[in-house]
Design a protein that fits this description.
It is a single chain. The protein is α+β, with helices and mostly antiparallel strands. It has 2 domains: about 160 residues, no CATH class; about 100 residues, no CATH class. The chain has 11 helices and 8 strands. The chain has a 6-stranded antiparallel sheet with strand order 2-3-1-4-7-8, with helices on one face. A two-stranded antiparallel sheet has the order 5-6. The radius of gyration is 22 Å and the shape is elongated.
Length: about 280
């Protein structure tokens, strides 16, 4: 796949680690971390990641962290850092680049983009055009992003400058807003470690969420994730069955109606509801 290395870049080839403070509230030991946050938002720094300059660590500390990361990888459990960066920038310069990448504007409204969460970074890569994605993560300055996802390490690599292609768009903000819902659905399915298969599955889930929102006017998060999960596990067209159409029509104005009704259905009930045969009532 474009931008992904066939094998992840060696840990020792990176200069920085990003640590998600939502996932790691306390460091395993005293480390020279830098808060990735603007001065204006400094009082809320605990919501934003830590930047760890790896070359500033004593060699024994870096070796210990690497060994722990390798051990966790072997045990299929995430290490305390899940994102590594390769860059020649100084700590101050890369911090500024990472802070700028946090902020996303849409219709005069500001948003925080959690690109430092591998579950978000993975989706941004396939949702955005190559040039827009490279601008968002500053790939000219940070050439390799190695992240832990679905039980394995993966590396996005940008050894050459990504050039703008005629017709490229910045990406759909509505689609980016669905990343959290996509991840909720993925969490309820068997783990897909293969990055290409995970991308294909994510696209399917996103398309189903879009159908649920636009065609059936579902707004409740539980309704939306249930709809997408049913599409993946049954078939993408399950909602076109006559009885399902009728049910979805009734559920449109009632928050949570769809998932409450369907959550206890048996396999037999699903077969009946998704049958496309119309029975004449005598």
């Amino acid at each position: 796949m474009t931008h992904y290395l066939t094998q992840p870049l060696a840990f020792s080839e990176h200069q920085y680690a990003l640590i998600d403070r939502r996932a790691v509230s306390q460091l395993p030991e005293a480390l020279p971390v830098i808060e990735v946050v603007s001065p204006l938002l400094a009082p809320q720094a605990h919501f934003y990641p830590w930047l760890l300059p790896l070359r500033e660590l004593p060699s024994e500390v870096w070796s210990r962290l690497l060994n722990e990361a390798r051990l966790n990888t072997a045990l299929n459990s995430p290490p305390f850092f899940t994102l590594l960066l390769k860059s020649d920038l100084s700590p101050t310069a890369i911090k500024n680049v990472l802070v700028n990448a946090l902020y996303l504007k849409e219709k005069q409204q500001g948003y925080i983009l959690r690109y430092y969460d591998p579950r978000v970074l993975f989706h941004l890569h396939w949702m955005m055009e190559p040039w827009a994605f490279s601008r968002r993560i500053a790939s000219d300055d940070i050439t390799h992003w190695t992240f832990w996802l679905a039980g394995d390490w993966h590396t996005l690599a940008f050894p050459e400058k990504v050039r703008y292609q005629q017709g490229e768009t910045p990406g759909s903000f509505a689609q980016i807003q669905r990343i959290g819902l996509i991840n909720q659905v993925l969490a309820r399915l068997p783990t897909t470690p293969d990055i290409a298969q995970r991308q294909t599955l994510s696209r399917r889930i996103d398309a189903l969420l879009d159908i649920a929102m636009t065609q059936w006017s579902l707004t409740d998060k539980q309704d939306l994730t249930a709809f997408a999960l049913h599409g993946v596990t049954l078939n993408d067209e399950f909602h076109q069955a006559p009885r399902m159409k009728a049910l979805l029509g009734r559920c449109q104005p009632v928050t949570g109606c769809y998932q409450r009704i369907t959550r206890s259905w048996t396999d037999e009930q699903w077969r009946e509801m998704t049958s496309k045969v119309r029975y004449l009532q005598l």
